[in-house]
Amino acid sequence: MTNFSELPLVFFTTFSQIAIGAYATLYLLGRNNHVGEKTIMLTAKLVVVLMALAMAGASTHLGDPMGGWRALLGLAHSWLSREILLMGAFLGLAFLYALPQLKGYRHCLGFCGSAAGVLGIVVTAMVYTLPARPAWDTVYPLLFFGMTALTAGPLLVSVVSAELEGKMCNVGLQLTRVMLLLGLLITVSYPLTQGNHLAMPSIWLAVRCLIGQVIPWFMLQRQLAGGQPVAKALLWTLLLVVLGELIGHQLFYESVVPYPLFPA
Q: Which value, in Å, is the radius of gyration of the alpha carbons in the chain?
């Protein structure tokens, strides 16, 4: 991997999807009392930080960051405009959710924020569903972005729960374990089915699968078998998953081959 021109978008898509996945998990588990108040408050703050960093990083990719608001003028016809609106709305709702003064409104904020975030991921995938990029003009962008949220988001909540409250968040860990296997299947199927439209280095694909999916799956398997949460082990698992997602998103941007405008 030598082309890092899209690195701001790598961080934006990865961190925003992790934040959305954690927020939706927090909302669902919090309303069913699967996580405690300390976990809710800290995770909510981490979501805001991750989302703010994601959007700040994405703004550096714009030619005129201060004029980025003008993108909202194209809501009627632009997926990018809709992405900016939904991601901004998600950040605002996540900020309100993290305020202890608004604890009584968590159900409403959690539902609306989760809806905005999920729609934001769908719209982000549509931004890249382009006929000029045949490998992207498929369901894979949505699968990749959705899997990042479903894998790392619940794991982040589980790490916080283990660290602050010493609780094994079995629902979150079980979901992450299943998503790691499903993500591995999707990651491998991508070059197999879209190989003619990709220039993906096999060594980096193997590194992505090993670091971000295979090793974390075995680490989670050991944690779940032990029955007691080990916060440091879960944190290392999360870091490996995030690193794997960053590599995967970098491969997503770097390895695609554009459709030639003037075929030979």
A: 19
Cα(226)–Cα(137) distance, integer angstroms: 43
Average pLDDT over residues 203-221: 96
Main-chain dihedrals φ then ψ at residue 198, nearest 5 degrees: -130, 150
Nearest to 47 by CA among 18, 86, 88: 18
Query: Can you say whether residue 52 is alpha, beta or left, with left for phi > 0 and alpha for psi between -120 and 50 degrees?
Result: alpha
pLDDT tens column, 96-116: 999 999 999 999 999 999 999
pTM exceeds 0.85 for this model: yes
Q: Are 7 and 243 a contacting pair, CB within 8 Å?
A: no
Written as one string, the DSSP assignment of 116-182 is HHHHHHHHHHHHH--TTSTTTSSSHHHHHHHHHHHHHHHHHHHHHHHHHH----HHHHHHHHHHHHH
- Token couple for 126: 């549509």
Determine phi and psi for 256, rounding to 5 degrees: -75, 140
Question: DSSP class of residue 259?
Answer: P
The phi and psi torsions of 262 (rounded to 5 degrees) equal -130, 80
User: What is the Cα–Cα distance from 90 to 118, expressed in whole angstroms?
Assistant: 9
Q: Is residue 13 within 8 Å of 245, Cβ to Cβ?
A: no
Contact 157, 138 (CB under 8 A): no
- For the record, the structure tokens of 107 come out as 């159900």
Give Cα 188 to chain centroid, integer Å. Answer: 19
How many contiguous H segments (helices) and E segments (strands) does the chain have? Answer: 9, 0
Assess whether pLDDT exceeds 50 at residue 170.
yes
Mean pLDDT across 136-143? 96
Contacts of 224 (CB under 8 A, 6+ apart): 168, 170, 173, 174, 177
